[in-house]
């Protein structure tokens, strides 16, 4: 499971949602949600749909949130 997959699963579980519920909210199949939670690598439109449904930013879900209190990915390299 990659970092995106972990963030997606954590965001879904934080809302108390099943994969089925997230699938219904996004129009992505339940199998598609399961695959994203295993493998990650969503297309941009898929990432936007997931972020919107889960109430998080695209940057946060993608792991690129560098707001206050967040480390800049560049400094971690």
Which helices and strands, and how do they pair?
Blueprint: H1 3-14, H2 19-26, H3 30-39, H4 44-54, H5 58-62, H6 73-76
Helix pairs in contact: 1-3, 2-3
Structure description:
The longest helix has 12 residues, at 3-14. The protein contains six helices and no strands. The relative contact order is 0.17. α1 (3-14) crosses α3 (30-39) and α2 (19-26) crosses α3 (30-39). The chain has one domain: 434 Repressor (Amino-terminal Domain), CATH 1.10.260. By secondary structure, the protein is mainly α. Helices cover 65% and strands 0% of the residues.
Structural descriptors:
77 residues, mainly alpha, 434 Repressor (Amino-terminal Domain), disordered C terminus
Q: The CATH topology, please?
A: 434 Repressor (Amino-terminal Domain)
Number of helices: 6
Secondary-structure class: mainly alpha
Order of helices and strands: HHHHHH
Mean pLDDT: 87
Oligomer state of the chains in this structure: single chain
Q: How many domains comprise the coordinates? A: 1
Report the portion of residues in β strands: under 5%
* Separation of the first and last Cα atoms: 21 Å
Fourth-level CATH superfamily: lambda repressor-like DNA-binding domains
CATH C-level label: Mainly Alpha
Please tally the β strands and state the result: 0
Major sheet description: none
Shape: globular
Report Rg.
12 Å
Contiguous low-pLDDT stretches (5 residues minimum) are 72-77
CATH architecture: Orthogonal Bundle
Helix coverage percent: 55-70%
């Amino acid at each position: 499971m990659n970092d995106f997959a972990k963030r997606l699963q954590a965001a879904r579980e934080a809302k108390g949602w099943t994969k089925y519920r997230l699938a219904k909210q996004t129009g992505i199949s339940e199998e598609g949600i399961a695959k994203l939670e295993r493998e990650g690598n969503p297309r941009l439109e898929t990432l936007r749909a997931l972020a919107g449904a889960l109430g998080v930013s695209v940057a946060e879900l993608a792991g690129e949130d560098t707001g206050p209190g967040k480390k800049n990915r560049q400094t971690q390299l």
